[in-house]
Amino acid sequence: MTSDLIRSLIVVRASGHLADGQRRYPRWELTNAELQRLLEEGVGGVILLGGSATEVRERTAQLRRWAGKPLLLCADVEEGVGQRFEGATWLVPPLALGQLHRRDPGRATALAERYGRCTGRDARALGLNWVLGPVCDVNNNPANPVINVRAWGEGPDAAAELAAGFCRGVQAEGVLACAKHFPGHGDTATDSHLELPLIAHSRDRLEAVELPPFRSAIAAGVAAVMTAHLMLPALDAELPATLSRAVLSGLLRQGLGFDGLIVTDALVMEAIAGRYGVGEAAVLALAAGADLVLMPGDADLAMAAIATALEEGRLDLKALEASAARRQRALASTEIATSPAGPPNLPPLEPDQALALELVQASLERQGPRWSRPRPGQASVNLIRCDNALSAPFLPLTAPALNLPGAAGMQTCLLDRHSPSPWSGDPQAPLALERLPGVAQPDSPAVLLQLFVRGNPFRGSAGAEEPWAEVVQQLQTRGQLAGLVVYGSPYLWQGLRPLLATQIPAAYSPGQMPLAQAEALASLGVGDTEGQGGFTD
Fold first, then answer.
1. 76: number of CA atoms within 13 Å, CB side?
2. By the 8 A CB rule, do 264 and 294 touch?
3. What is the pTM of this model?
4. Which of 76, 193, 229, 352 does the annotation list as catalytic?
5. I need a surface site. Which of 79, 167, 228, 370 has the fewest CB within 10 A?
6. 193: annotated active-site residue
């Protein structure tokens, strides 16, 4: 039936938590009653976010029971499955390997494939059969607020080699990979979660820089490609890539010869939802050549609009049948999908902590002497900056960034975007230490500055607007900078590193998770009462 065909091309969003009350984003995550109804009616896939690894393993089994047939189950796990689901392996961001590729391309490529294998193994252990990665965007714009460290490289060669290695690794574990965001979201300073970016490059430039990683992923056999919510006038002056037949059917299918699954990026993102509406966006995406519609704002409304468009001749039934056939071929290639409905025979979850540690250590940078404990009686502050202290999974109560300085007697002050302004009312002014709780001390406290800065979806910037260069210089002039650790953005580190006096202990890690914190701080000797660091060069 046509209605069954339409439903199979929709992928909806759900929480990885089992109970409705645990949903973190109820605006986008369906209730269990809605989810069960849609799966029983034949919706073709679910994207999951939130929950522990153990819980998600139960959740995917539950979703399969409700569907009663093979189902695409995916997640945005670009930095290892543990990035999203606690208990699995959390790896450094891909751009860490892009940095390593400059020094040792062979090792970086081998690690990218191991990275993919680890991600595929963990995904399969949780019941997921589709990883929404690798990011194939070339992050050649340091101001990029949304791609940033998610990319595998800042140039097309590194991004192409490493993304292909990741694809091979994931799919060797019987899990689908997905190259994104086609035809390239790297050179933009705009976040498509919030607005529609414009990339004005010529076709020749796209061929030279943006497209090589996608060509490489396709040559590596990547199962799926995700679209980008971007305007590229050189390819289509009227419609964004997600809705453009010239981009999807012309460039991707015919030009690059890709015959796998084409999936839209989430249609609830403002770049699309704010301009085209739920139903029209779904119709235009399928008409352009997409096979799967990811996260429409209202699945029922999207399916009704698709049915109407078929009746009116705006959509071709044979094209949708071809999309459904691609979905079936992709499912048939995954080990999990061939299991009968009900709890599949999943392998045990065995996090690869050795790989996680190797990647952290391979990407860690440091300079200056070892850290010195504050002198007896001297006030000292552990000043941490993050985006949102209430939503920072890398900063649990046991986080080394909190506890190691605390063990050395430092008082922690947490600064985020919701804190009172520390810039004396002027974002461009140096840090006013007296405005921070616990910092206004009479003896000029020693300050350990820990900056968690990277591009993140919905943030709208890459953190470059904050005057950390002035802060570092101010603290050094006052003799108060006891040490600096940057987690995340290489661009912030590259900007601050030349400003540091030789006597300032400093470290940089692309990773922000507790393992990265422990290694970065240990490399400086922070919290080590015997003066022995845990860093292995």
1. 16
2. yes
3. 0.93
4. 193
5. 370
6. yes
